[in-house]
Design goal:
The complex is a heterodimer of chains A (about 625) and B (about 300).
Chain A lengths: L1 E2 L10 H15 L1 E4 L12 H6 L4 H18 L1 E2 L11 E7 L7 E2 L2 E2 H15 L5 E7 L4 E7 L2 H10 L9 H14 L4 E7 L8 H5 L2 E4 L7 E9 L10 E8 L5 E9 L2 E10 L3 E8 L5 E8 L9 E6 L5 E6 L4 H12 L3 E6 L6 H5 L3 E5 L10 E5 L10 E9 L2 E2 L16 E8 L5 E8 L4 E10 L2 E6 L14 H14 L6 E5 L3 E3 L8 E4 L5 E4 L5 E3 L4 E7 L2 E8 L3 H4 L33 H23 L6
Chain B lengths: L6 H10 L2 H7 L29 E7 L11 H7 L3 E6 L6 E6 L12 H18 L4 E6 L7 E3 L9 H9 L9 H11 L5 E6 L5 H13 L3 E8 L1 H4 L7 E6 L5 E5 L2 H25 L2 E6 L4 H12 L4
Helix pairs in contact in B: 1-4, 4-5, 6-7, 7-9
Classes of the chains: A alpha/beta (about 625), B alpha/beta (about 300).
Chain lengths: ~625, ~300
C-alpha cells in the first residue's frame, strides 16, 4: 500500500486537535445545579470523560477525519512493478470507416475523440491508461501509462481508416491487458456500433459510448472490370454497383473516368435500401478507371472506387509438334485471339534459344532432353521421358474428379463425364499436383498435372488433344481448361493491382529492399528490408517504389456493413462493474472497484457525516452540533 | 450573617414593597388553625390557667392558688362571696419565616429562587404584621453561625421596612442545614406559632423530615413551600451535555441529556416532590410548590389561599 499524496498524511495531526477539542468540549461546559440529588438517577459520564472513552460521536468523527485524510492522500495498492496506480483504464477508439460519417457536430470520430478525452480527464491522476485503436488491424497505440499528455496527443493524432473494425481482436487486446493487470481494469469503447451489436464478450465487460445516428449514405459497393486474359482494353467492360443505404430515396450522378478523363456520367435515383448497377464499355484505352459518386451524403469514403484496365500484353507461345491437326487448331485459335502469338516448330528444329523468347512452350508428344528455361506445357508425353514417367496407356476414359481450387479450373463447370480417347498413365512428380483424375478398374491416375519445377511453371496434359477436337463446340469445357491452363502458365504481370482496404498486400515479388510506400494521403514511409507485406487501410492509390521502378496498388472500400452507417438506436453508456482479471490468480485482497480508493473514501466520509449528524441529533435532541 | 444581595433579590423585595402590591396584600389574612402564644410579659405560672386580657369572660369561685389580683372585691362586698374574674385571653400567632439561605437557592441563577423566596417572605410578613401578629425571619444555612440567623420579632406594619433591610442582607451560600438550623433557631426562641419554611428542599428526605418534625414537636402550624424554577424543571434549557457542579458540595458529575437521561431526571424530580408532599400530608403540614416563573402574585393570591395558609 502506498499513497500518491503522502504529504496529506500530515493532516493526521488533526487527530490531536480532535482529541483535544473533544476533551475540552467536555470540560468547557460546566453547569451549576442546586444539587446532584436529582441527578443520581442519571448515568454519570465522569469516568468516560477522564479516561477518554470515546462515545459514538467521537468514533464517527475519527472515522470521518480518517476517510478525509486518506482520500487526500490517495492511497493505492502497490503492484508488482511498484506502480502507484489505483486502477487501469483502457480506451478503445473505433477507427473504422463508418466513424468518418458526418454528423451534426462533426464526424463521428471527432465526437468519439471528445468523449474519450472527457473520460480521460475524469480518471484519477494515479490511474494508468491504455489507448487502443480498433480498426482493420487493432493496435495498442499507447501502453499503460499515467502520462496524460501522451495519451491526449496520441488520441488527437488518431485518424479513422477506410476499412472495417475488427472488434474481436481489440477485445482480445483488452482481455489480455486485463488478465495481466493486478489492478481493477475498466474498458471504455467509443464506437458507432450499438452495444447490442458488439460481440457478446466485448459487450459484457465494457462500457460503450456510442456516437452517430445518421443513415444518409450512398456508396459504390462494387467496381468490377471484366477483361479476359487474352482481351485488350477495347473489350473491357466496367460494372459499377451503387447502393443506397439510407431509408429514403437517393439521387446522384455517377461519373466514370479513365486516367482522369471523363468517360461517362449517369444520373440515377435509387429507392431506399436498394442498389443499382451500371455497365460501362468502350473505354478509349487502358489505365486506371475511377467511378465517383457526386452525392451529398454523410460518408465520403465509399463514394469513389478504382479499377484497372490492363494494356495488351501478347502471350508468346511456341508450339513444338510434328505436323498434326492440333497445329492447325492452335493456329486458328491464335488468329482469333489478338493477344495470343503462336509460333510452330518441329521437334528437330526446336532450339533452346527459341524457348527463351517465348512465354510458354507447348510440347506435343515430346519431352526434350533439356528442359526449357521457361514455362512449359507437355501434351500427351511420349512413353519414354524422364519428366513424367509413363506407366501405361488407357483409352476411352472419363474425367471423374478434378481440383476445383486450382486457377485453371476455378471458373469451369463440372468436367465429369468428359470423354477422353487416348491417355498416358504417368507417375505424378512430387513437385506437381493433380488437376484432373480418372481411373481404370485397377487404379486411379492423373489426366492433368501442374506445378513449379526449376523455377518455372510446368503443366502436363496426359491425354492427346489432337484426338479431342479442341475447338469443337462439344468440347467447350476442354477449350476453356486449355486456355486457363495457358493463362496460369504465363501469369500476367499487371502494372496495377486492385484490392480492397484492410487486405494485406505481399511484397515478395518486388525486387530489392527496402521499399518506399506512399499511401493515398500522401504519407511516404520506408519499409525495412525484412518486411514482406503491408497493410492497406486506406482507399485510393498506393505507390510502391524502388530504384526508380514503381507499381500501383489501388484499394477500394467495399464493405456494405461499414457503409450501412444508420443505427437503429443510440444507447447511452452503461457502466459495467469491472473486476481485476489478475485477482483470480493473485492471492492478495480484491482491490476496490473502478474509480480507485479516493471516491470511495469520500463517499464513506459523506456517509459518516450524515451518520454523525443523525447520532448527534439523537444524543443531543434539538441540537445539530 | 451574610451580607449583600443581588439586584434580583432587591427587585423582588421592591416589587413586594411597592404601594400597589401592598394594597393587594392588605386583602390577605393569615389563617391560623391553632395557637399559639400569649402576649409577652406574662409570667408563666405553675398552673398557668389564667390568661391575660381585658375582656371579662366569666366569674368563678375562688380556689386555692388563684391569683388574688383577679379577686372581685366589689362582688365580695355585696355578695360576701369570693369571686375570681377570668378574662378572655388575647392570643397572637407569631409567624416564623424560615428561609433557606443555602447556595442551592441561588442555583440556577436564572430561576431566582432565592429572590422569589425573599419576596414571598416579605409578603407573608406584611400580611402577618397587618394582622398584628409578630413576625420574624430566620435564615437557615450551614454557612451561617450556628446554622441560622434570625431577625427580631417585628410587631408593627411599619416594621416591614426593617424586615426588608434584614432580608436584603441575606446571601445564599453554603450547604443546606434545615434540620440543624431550625433546631438551633427553635432552641433560642421557644414560642410556637406559624412556621413557614421556604426552601427548595434539595436535601435528603431524612433531613427535611427531621427539620419539619422539629417544628411539629413544638406544635407549630407549619407550611412548607417548595420553591422551584423553570430550569430546574427542564434542565435541557440550560445544557445538553455538561459537567454538573453541585452548588453546595462542589461535587461534579458528567451528564449527557439524552432522552433517557432527561426522563430519568424528570422522574427523580417528580419523586422528590411527591415524597415531600406525602410526608407533609401525613403530618398535617401545608405544602405548596411555588414556581418562580409563575410569579409572586400567583403564589400569594392563588396557590397559598388554595393551600389554606392565606385567605
Amino acid at each position: 500500500m502506498g499513497f500518491a499524496e503522502p504529504l496529506a498524511l500530515l493532516f493526521g495531526a488533526l487527530y490531536g486537535v480532535l482529541i483535544a477539542f473533544y476533551l475540552w468540549e467536555r470540560w468547557r461546559r460546566r453547569v451549576a445545579v442546586p444539587s446532584l440529588l436529582l441527578w443520581e438517577a442519571v448515568r454519570d459520564d465522569t469516568l468516560r470523560a477522564r479516561r477518554l472513552r470515546p462515545d459514538l460521536l467521537f468514533v464517527l468523527q475519527v472515522l470521518l477525519l480518517g476517510c478525509l485524510i486518506a482520500g487526500l492522500a490517495q492511497p493505492y495498492r502497490r503492484g508488482t512493478e511498484g506502480a502507484a496506480a489505483t486502477a487501469r483504464r483502457i480506451l478503445v477508439i473505433d477507427t473504422s470507416a463508418s466513424m468518418q460519417a458526418q454528423e451534426s457536430g462533426g464526424t463521428r470520430f471527432a465526437q468519439a475523440q471528445r468523449d474519450a478525452l472527457a473520460r480521460l480527464r475524469a480518471f484519477g491522476g494515479a490511474d494508468e491508461v491504455m489507448l487502443i485503436s480498433a480498426g482493420a488491424s487493432p493496435e495498442v497505440v499507447v501502453p499503460f501509462t499515467r502520462d496524460r499528455a501522451a495519451i491526449e496527443q496520441a488520441l488527437g493524432a488518431l485518424q479513422p481508416v477506410d476499412a472495417g473494425a475488427d472488434h474481436a481482436v481489440a477485445h482480445a487486446f483488452t482481455e489480455s491487458a486485463r488478465q495481466r493487470s493486478d489492478l481493477p481494469t475498466t474498458v471504455d469503447v467509443f464506437t458507432d456500433i450499438p452495444r447490442a451489436q458488439l460481440p457478446a464478450a466485448l459487450r459484457e465487460r465494457t462500457t460503450v459510448y456510442q456516437v452517430g445516428e445518421s443513415d444518409d449514405n450512398l456508396g459504390v459497393e462494387g467496381l468490377q472490370i471484366y477483361q479476359g486474359r487474352f482481351q485488350d482494353y477495347r473489350d473491357a467492360r466496367a460494372y459499377v454497383r451503387v447502393e443506397n443505404f439510407a431509408h429514403r430515396e437517393g439521387h446522384g450522378v455517377l461519373t466514370v473516368r479513365l486516367e482522369g478523363e471523363i468517360v461517362k456520367r449517369s444520373g440515377f435515383t435509387i429507392p431506399a435500401r436498394d442498389s443499382k448497377g451500371f455497365l460501362f464499355h468502350e473505354f478509349p484505352g487502358p489505365g486506371r478507371v475511377t467511378a465517383q459518386l457526386e452525392v451529398r451524403d454523410a460518408l465520403a469514403v465509399d463514394n469513389v472506387a478504382h479499377g484497372w484496365i490492363r494494356p495488351l500484353h501478347p502471350l508468346r507461345v511456341l508450339f513444338v509438334s510434328r505436323p498434326s491437326p492440333l497445329v492447325s487448331e492452335l493456329q486458328d485459335l491464335a488468329a482469333a485471339v489478338p493477344a495470343l502469338r503462336l509460333r510452330v516448330t518441329g521437334p528437330e528444329e526446336y532450339r533452346e534459344e527459341q524457348a527463351r523468347q517465348a512465354d510458354i512452350v507447348i510440347f506435343h508428344r515430346l519431352v526434350p532432353g533439356a528442359l526449357p528455361a521457361t514455362n512449359a506445357l507437355y501434351v500427351h508425353p511420349p512413353p519414354e521421358n524422364a519428366l513424367f514417367p509413363v506407366e501405361g496407356d488407357a483409352v476411352n476414359v472419363e474425367v471423374l474428379d478434378w481440383d476445383a481450387q486450382h486457377a485453371a479450373l476455378q471458373p469451369l463447370r463440372p468436367l465429369a463425364s468428359l470423354p477422353l480417347q487416348r491417355v498416358r498413365i504417368v507417375t505424378r512428380p512430387p513437385w506437381s499436383r493433380t488437376l484432373l483424375w480418372s481411373r481404370t478398374p485397377e487404379r486411379e491416375f492423373a489426366l492433368a498435372l501442374a506445378g513449379q519445377h526449376d523455377g518455372h511453371r510446368v503443366a502436363c496434359i496426359t491425354f492427346d488433344l489432337e484426338a479431342e477436337r479442341l475447338l469443337s463446340s462439344d468440347s467447350i469445357n476442354l477449350f476453356l481448361f486449355f486456355m486457363n491452363l495457358l493463362a496460369w502458365l504465363a501469369p500476367e504481370q499487371a502494372d496495377a493491382t486492385v484490392t480492397t482496404t484492410g487486405e494485406v498486400y505481399p511484397l515478395g515479388q518486388l525486387p530489392g529492399q527496402p521499399l518506399r510506400v506512399r499511401d493515398p494521403r500522401g504519407v511516404t514511409q520506408t519499409l525495412p528490408p525484412t518486411q514482406q507485406a503491408i497493410e492497406l487501410p486506406l482507399a485510393g492509390e498506393y505507390r510502391i517504389s524502388f530504384d526508380g521502378t514503381s507499381r500501383t496498388v489501388l484499394t477500394n472500400f467495399f464493405d456494405p456493413v461499414e457503409s450501412d452507417i444508420g443505427r437503429a438506436s443510440k444507447e447511452p453508456p452503461v457502466a459495467v462493474t469491472q473486476r481485476a482479471g489478475a485477482a483470480r490468480s493473485a492471492p492478495r485482497a480484491q482491490p476496490p472497484p473502478a474509480g480507485g480508493y479516493r471516491p470511495w473514501l469520500y463517499a464513506c466520509a459523506a456517509a459518516l457525516f450524515l451518520l454523525e449528524w443523525a447520532a448527534a441529533r439523537w444524543i443531543r435532541p434539538g441540537s445539530t452540533e | 450573617m451574610a451580607h449583600a444581595s443581588s439586584g434580583t433579590d432587591g427587585g423582588a423585595l421592591g416589587e413586594v414593597l411597592a404601594p400597589g402590591f401592598l394594597r393587594k396584600l392588605d386583602r390577605l389574612h393569615l389563617r391560623v388553625r391553632r395557637s399559639l402564644s400569649t402576649r409577652p410579659g406574662n409570667t408563666p405560672m405553675p398552673r398557668g390557667a389564667q390568661g391575660s386580657g381585658i375582656e371579662i369572660e366569666r366569674y368563678k369561685a375562688y380556689g386555692a392558688g388563684d391569683d388574688l389580683r383577679h379577686l372581685d372585691w366589689n362582688a365580695y362586698g355585696r355578695l360576701d362571696q369570693l369571686l375570681i374574674k377570668t378574662f378572655r385571653a388575647e392570643r397572637e400567632a407569631p409567624l416564623h419565616l424560615f428561609v433557606d439561605v443555602s447556595a442551592s437557592m441561588a442555583t440556577p441563577a436564572a430561576d431566582n429562587k432565592f429572590g422569589f423566596a425573599l419576596g414571598l417572605a416579605a409578603s407573608l410578613a406584611y400580611v402577618s404584621l397587618r394582622g398584628h401578629d409578630p413576625v420574624r425571619v430566620v435564615g437557615v444555612g450551614a454557612a451561617l453561625p450556628q446554622h441560622y440567623v434570625t431577625s427580631p420579632f417585628y410587631r408593627h406594619r411599619q416594621a416591614v421596612y426593617a424586615l426588608r433591610d434584614f432580608l436584603v442582607q441575606l446571601r445564599p451560600q453554603g450547604e443546606t442545614a434545615l434540620a440543624t438550623g431550625l433546631d438551633a433557631a427553635l432552641r433560642a426562641h421557644r414560642s410556637p406559632g406559624v412556621a413557614v419554611v421556604l426552601s427548595d428542599f434539595l436535601v435528603a428526605p431524612t433531613t427535611y423530615e427531621s427539620a419539619l418534625e422539629t417544628l411539629l414537636a413544638r406544635r407549630f402550624t407549619i407550611a412548607a413551600i417548595r420553591v422551584i424554577g423553570v430550569q430546574e424543571r427542564d434542565p435541557t434549557r440550560a445544557f445538553r451535555r455538561a459537567q454538573l457542579i453541585d452548588a453546595e458540595s462542589g461535587h461534579r458529575r458528567f451528564v449527557t441529556l439524552s432522552p433517557g437521561n432527561v426522563a430519568r431526571y424528570e422522574r427523580a424530580l417528580s419523586e422528590h416532590a411527591g415524597r415531600l408532599q406525602t410526608f407533609c400530608n401525613r403530618c398535617g403540614i401545608s405544602f405548596a410548590i411555588a414556581d418562580t416563573a409563575a410569579g409572586l402574585a400567583r403564589c400569594l393570591f392563588y396557590d397559598l389561599p388554595a393551600l389554606g395558609l392565606l385567605h
